[in-house]
Amino acid sequence: EIVLTQSPGTLSLSPGEGATLSCRASQTVSTSYLAWYQQKPGQAPRLLIYATSSRATGIPDRFSGSASGTDFTLTISRLEPEDFAVYYCQQYGTSPFTFGPGTKVHVK
Amino acid sequence: EVQLVESGGGLVQPGRSLRLSCAASGFKFDDSAVYWVRQAPGKGLEWVSGISWNSLNIAYAGSVKGRFTISRDNAKNSLYLQMNGLTTEDTALYYCAKGYNWNDHIDSWGQGTLVTVSS
After folding, report:
1. Which of B44, B105, B109 faces A44 most closely, judged by CB atoms?
2. Which range is least confidently modeled, A65-69, B46-50, B107-111?
3. How far apart are CA B100 and CA B29, in angstroms?
4. DSSP secondary structure code for residue A56 in this structure
């Protein structure tokens, strides 16, 4: 089973600042098979990014994804008030399709 | 509009069984892979199980393998999760979710059904 490790566990930032979230895989994950989701309290997760860098429908361009080897990154260029949430990465190349433990982005 | 509506959750004693259902609408269910993802109270997401459109690909998380069985009925646009030998560790909100192909991201989620395992 592929284990995904996300860092940091928590990010304390202010609106307008940039955020860099990391997701590291224990084994090779093709860039075709890595997604990022956003979850707010009391809500189901929402797809942000798939195939490492493709934005889902309706996702603003301040969200971007990239990869280097087994390290994947979600970047939020300028945090808006609605971006404070928990972010999960998921690999869906090798079953079981595991999630990372999440990074919570909260208001400083 | 894609809709995934879970049902079947509730309070169950350890060691007992429960069957979850997910009713799908608004998309071609028989063309889609579908999954169960759970979230324990205050915890992160855990991928539980998935099944491809034709049921030829099925997978489980190690934590549920041998106890849970996923199935689907394309004629009824429905997904199921039979959960046996429940433990307190299975207490969670269970989401039904869909992708396109087997190796695919999740593009839609239900609102979840809560399973509480307690004596």
Report:
1. B109
2. A65-69
3. 9
4. P
What is the 8-class DSSP label of residue A44? -
Q: How many CB atoms lie within 10 A of CB B13?
A: 9
B48 to chain A nearest CA, in Å?
A: 8
Phi-psi category of B36—alpha, beta or left, where left has phi over 0 and alpha has psi -120 to 50? Answer: beta
- Number of C-beta neighbours around residue A56 at 10 A: 17
Q: pLDDT tens digits, residue range A66-83? A: 999 889 999 999 999 999
Contact A53, A108 (CB under 8 A): no
A26's tokens: 């224990």
Asked if A7 has any chain B CB less than 8 Å from its own CB, the reply is no
Query: In chain A, how many H helices and how many E strands?
Result: 0, 10
Would you give the DSSP letter of residue B55? S
Question: In chain B, count of helices (H) and strands (E)?
Answer: 0, 11
**pLDDT for B13:** 98
Nearest residue of A to residue B99, measured between CA atoms: A92
DSSP assignments along B65-107, one per residue:
TTTEEEEEEGGGTEEEEEE-S--GGG-EEEEEEE-SSSS----
Helix (H, G, I), strand (E, B), or coil: what is residue A72? strand
Taking Cα atoms as reference points, which of A41, A32, A47, A36 lies closest to residue A75?
Answer: A36
Q: Which of B44, B61, B105 shows the shortest C-beta gap to A101?
A: B44
Q: Is the pLDDT of residue B12 over 90?
A: yes
Asked if the peptide bond before residue A101 counts as cis, ω within 30 degrees of 0, the response is no
Dihedral of the alpha carbons of A27, A28, A32, A33, in degrees to the nearest 10 = -10
